[in-house]
């Protein structure tokens, strides 16, 4: 008995030592920065009492004179969130600044392998100074081993990264491959090279925040899908995001109970489109009026705001929503918007999430800036994503659908399953103003200014009546029905119900060659 008691005491002491990470002083420093420790983060995220830790006693291999810490700077294991299993790793900044070494990487690889084997999402909490210098190439090899698993898991299990501190150098590429990045204001930043190296190489002086803070990545680079006010807000976001996702690519997102009537009528939708076709309106209002209880989770909300991407529910079932936003750049498609929507569509398709598209697009953004930045390639990514997707796809044209942008935005020609239009829809090669100048330019060449204006006004009216409506496309079968806006929610739900048994596939191949 005494022998077993002594052994149990050793076990308890070692567990307590592991839980202390880098020690009380470093934990205090972490708290003084407004940050939680690695284990505190896990406890605050997961269901109470559900966390099962792996490799608590793992240490580095005795490199140089480095002190030995149990767990070696990263906490790994599995738990439940909202009652569903997830795998987790949480980097511990109190141990060698969260730097990654050989065993640290092995722990992350092990939990990712576990997640792939059992088919559950993996959540990574990043708070690391980068590769552990003392371990040399072992740290670099460790990063590459993690990257390989990120790629293997891509489209198989959902991968979520929370950036809750520094994430620099090679460390940034793992979150970049994952499906969603959540950054916390003021405490998180990401960059390939830090301010000191930037100054040395380019003579440019920048702060951490200016170079790779949450605002920069949410508005300029698009790296951050969400920005949280603080760590607790980040955990709330992760919990909410997971409710829209399946466990893996072989399953569908579990439905939630819904008491929002299927047949709910929204009269406001009949009057939301301005009578002047050049006036903007807020597409997000349409989305909130049709989804269950107005609950919509926008993804990359502040990057490329001329297109909306995010998750909503219809009768309790998760749906991915893409919508042009007329209140930003008239909803035009540019390089960023095309990339944003294409990435979101491919995620939804990989994880069996149906896609709903609202269209009000005047075309692709013209100009040298867009052309030089690759609008041809980026626009092609968007059409590729829509054409490739085999999940149920419903498209509703609310107003403008001009030119190639009509084709690209979930059209019938790219395997749209149900394509509806509101009576306000304008489906044409181009807008009336541009069209009449092309069609009647020679005729109007020598007209006096007053007559010219009168002539063009009459021709624009004629063009609108003939082409800028949904009925021409409906005659050809490219629009399945012209629907009353207020009935949109009912028609969407009935549509997705009818598509539950949809079976579609792409031709056998190793992989397609999406234009990158």
Structure description:
The strands form two sheets. Strands 1, 2, 3, 4, 5, 6, 7 and 8 form an eight-stranded mixed β-sheet that branches. Strands 9, 10, 11, 12, 13, 14, 15 and 16 form an eight-stranded mixed β-sheet that branches. Helix 4 runs parallel beside helix 5. The mean pLDDT is 93. The chain is elongated and about 100 Å long. The N and C termini lie far apart (66 Å). It contains 19 helices and 16 strands. By secondary structure, it is an alpha/beta fold. The chain has three domains: 242 residues, 2-enoyl-CoA Hydratase, Chain A, domain 1 (Alpha-Beta Complex), CATH 3.90.226; 194 residues, Alpha-Beta Complex (2-enoyl-CoA Hydratase, Chain A, domain 1), CATH 3.90.226.10; 36 residues. Strand 13, helix 15 and strand 14 form a beta-alpha-beta unit.
Give a quick rundown of the structure.
It contains 19 helices and 16 strands. It is an alpha/beta fold.
Radius of gyration: 27 Å
In percent terms, what proportion of residues is strand? 15-25%
Poorly predicted ranges: none
Look at the helices and sheets and give the structural class. Answer: alpha/beta
CATH domain class name of the largest domain: Alpha Beta
Count of separate structural domains: 3
CATH architecture identity of the largest domain: Alpha-Beta Complex
Q: Care to count the β-strands?
A: 16
Tertiary shape: elongated
CATH fold annotation of the largest domain? 2-enoyl-CoA Hydratase, Chain A, domain 1
The name of the CATH superfamily of the largest domain reads 2-enoyl-CoA Hydratase, Chain A, domain 1
